[in-house]
Design brief:
188 residues; mainly alpha; I/LWEQ domain; 6 helices
Length: 188
């Protein structure tokens, strides 16, 4: 995982935003940060591409889990598993087709400062999103293994937990996009 794998706390990352940027740069090809105008769009695209890759793997595994639930005849988990699959699908679509509306985030030279945003917040959000997406994928893998081994006693609870994880991941991604969407600065 990204931030958690490195054993760096959120407070340490917030105090040294360059550490958060280093983590993202080392884990995402083409990620150069949002400070320089000429790198901003490519950094956004690199982040979203990384997330889409993780979500694609997650979606494939969730489809297998859904099939195993049907095969195991765990009727009460079919609906929640379908909701999780839809959330993954929605996240993939939003990651691929992100529309920042009227934001000038990608058009102005300076995005930080008195009337700008704190880029460390963006970096922390992105680390959190990627950590959560990896954790989400790992949980789906655990459920898949349990279903394959017919260890069905915890599956219902695990699927309910997946609903929470998928919802939290979606909320964090929405927060990130809202941070960009809300950026308005007059071009001078």
């Amino acid at each position: 995982m990204f931030g958690k794998k490195k054993d760096i706390s959120d407070s340490a990352l917030a105090e040294a935003p360059s550490e958060a940027l280093k983590i993202l740069r080392s884990n995402i090809g083409g990620y150069l940060g949002y400070k320089a105008l000429e790198y901003r769009k490519n950094t956004d695209k690199a982040f979203r591409t990384k997330l889409i890759t993780i979500l694609r793997e997650t979606s494939d595994m969730m489809s297998q889990v859904h099939e195993l639930l049907i095969h195991s005849q765990l009727l009460t988990s079919w609906g929640p598993a379908g909701i999780v699959s839809k959330t993954i699908s929605d996240l993939r679509k939003e990651s691929a087709d992100t529309d920042y509306k009227y934001s000038t985030f990608f058009d102005v030279v300076e995005v930080e400062g008195e009337h700008g945003i704190d880029l460390s917040i963006m970096y922390l959000l992105e680390i959190d999103i990627l950590d959560n997406s990896e954790e989400f994928k790992d949980k789906i893998t655990e459920i898949k293994i349990n279903l394959e081994e017919m260890m069905l006693d915890t599956v219902e609870t695990s699927i309910a937990n997946l609903m929470n994880l998928s919802s939290n991941l979606h909320e964090k991604f929405t927060e990130r996009n809202e941070l960009i969407r809300a950026f308005e600065k007059m071009k001078l």
